[in-house]
Amino acid sequence: MGAKLQSTETDDLVENHEINVTPFIDVILVLLIIFMVAAPLSTVDVAVDLPASNAQVQPRPDKPVYLTVKSDLVLALGNDDVLRPSLGATLDRITENKRDTRIFLRADKTVDYGELMEVMNLLRAAGYLKIALVGVEMTSQPAPAAPPAPAPGTVPAAAGAAPTTPAPASAAPAAVPAPAVAAPAPVAPAAPASGVPAP
User: Is residue 75 a contact partner of residue 67, using CB atoms and an 8 Å limit?
Assistant: First the structure.
């Protein structure tokens, strides 16, 4: 509450029933400016084509550390490119030598699996063992692809075996063991968004 001074003969202060909103508006505007400046700094702007994942979304820490493998195999820590030999020292500087910090590893889906493993080995050699793989959230699960139907006159092959060719019509039928019908290969689930791949 405020008080209004009046030039009356009495020394009583009269209550003012008006709310002074000027300090409130000042505080709100300062907070708005702080959030407008801080919001763009908390995102990563490196453009990569991430593969989709159907894993449950995990909560993100306050200050995540993103390591990105671009399609041209250049590493980016946040928005800045980093050389592979200096990756450990740069991570130590950013995480303040906290080796238990979770590193969010992003990679373009055109990056070879061997290259991704090489980057993970660099992280392991630097002492960072908590690695989370980042992917795009899928809206629905795709249907598994059906195996192609065998050509007429061929024997269905087991999964991973070379296809067989039909026997010539003039040849005597050979004793063929009963074909083992292979069940469709199960689709491997995508790596969890916050899990570390199995060795």
Answer: yes
pLDDT of 161-196, one tens digit each? 444 444 444 444 444 343 333 334 444 444 444 444
Strand ranges (E), 47-178: 52-53, 65-69, 75-77, 80-82, 103-107, 131-133, 136-137
Residue position matching structure tokens 């990756």: 87
Q: How many CA atoms lie within 13 A of 6 on its CB side?
A: 12
Beta bridge partners of residue 53, listed in sequence order: 137
Alpha helices in the chain (DSSP H): 22-41, 87-95, 113-126
How far is residue 161's CA from residue 91's CA, in Å, rounded to a whole number?
46
Phi/psi at 2 (5° precision): -115, 170
Is the pTM of the predicted complex or chain greater than 0.70?
Answer: no
